[in-house]
Amino acid sequence: MNHGERFVFIAEWYDPNASLFRRYELLFYPGDGSVEMHDVKNHRTFLKRTKYDDLHLEDLFIGNKVNIFSRQLVLIDYGDQYTARQLGSRKEKKEAMDFHIDHQSKPFLNELIQLITSGPTIAMEILRDDAICEWKRLLGPANSGMARTDAPGSLRALFGTDGIRNAAHGPDSFASAAREMELFFPSSGVCGPANTAKFTNCTCCIIKPHAISEGLLGKILMAIRDAGFEISAMQMFNMDRVNVEEFYEVYKGVVSEYNEMVTEMYSGPCVAMEIQQNNPTKTFREFCGPADPEIARHLRPGTLRAIFGKTKIQNAVHCTDLPEDGLLEVQYFFKILDN
């Protein structure tokens, strides 16, 4: 082992006293198991190089939480190109291999792993009677070419290319479904795969519960994409009243519909997104339109709220109002609630 080798990560710690995230550069020396930390904002050493037996090389991957002397840090990025090259795809490939364990002996395994680790994926829990069989029927044959002949209305026929790039995956059995659910949504309380939020040049959008229950999720996502916005992170949340009141605190005493806004947001699942573009908060707020859909339909008929909104409370989406709040709202969902 190269005793001079070191790996560098950017890590964040939530300071409950100051109610803010503090960012550090975390250095790990595998040769002797020592660690070192630098305060990024203040450009000073926070922890001198010290041997620390409770941190191991296999713990170091983006999205993981590590404890350094009782301080829980979240690894959010690589600190240098060497670390990114050496460790970048190791965790992702292991997760992909675990997910596709049923294909370990297949000749197309490497191509499949390369595809699934090439970018973000969306995992869903789907509920209905006989869900596994019905989802398989909706997907169609595994090979998209065959699907276009045998099941032309199936998802793989419509959106797939071949036997590898076939749009979507579905488990073959109850056992596979249970194993795959445990990989993405662990029941034991441990963390599943890290979310994809980038926390830079971003704003927040929340698709409200009424829009989810009305089956508008797909249409709203397509409208956002077609307008040229990048959805860099997306996750479904079931918020409780305390969370909603905390998130909407800035509107309390300012907006007369505050109580109704709170009730709507915890009435069912919502979908939170990190949206990226140039000047994202202003541009995306304009795309959402006025808060009252009736006004939006008269003044901005092509906006999200004009098209999908019903009332000032059930207006399809929440979007960040102020540029300085974009990152804070994204952090609330993808750092605080997700953790």
Short key terms for the protein model shown above:
339 residues, alpha+beta, PH-domain like, Alpha-Beta Plaits, 3 domains, 15 helices, 20% strand
Strand content: 15-25%
- CATH hierarchy, class of the largest domain: Alpha Beta
Termini separation: 35 Å
Helical segment count: 15
Largest sheet: 6 strands, antiparallel
CATH fold-level label of the largest domain: Alpha-Beta Plaits
CATH superfamily heading of the largest domain? Nucleoside diphosphate kinase-like domain
The helix fraction, in percent, is: 25-40%
**Residue runs with pLDDT of under 50 for 5 or more positions:** none
Give the H and E element order.
EEEEEEHHHHHHHEHHEHHEHHHEH
Secondary structure category: alpha+beta
CATH architecture of the largest domain: 2-Layer Sandwich
Gross geometry: globular
Give the rounded overall mean pLDDT: 92
Strand order in the sheet with the most strands:
4-3-2-1-6-5
**How many beta-strand runs?**
10
Count of individual domains: 3
- The gyration radius over C-alpha positions equals 23 Å
Assembly state here?
A: single chain
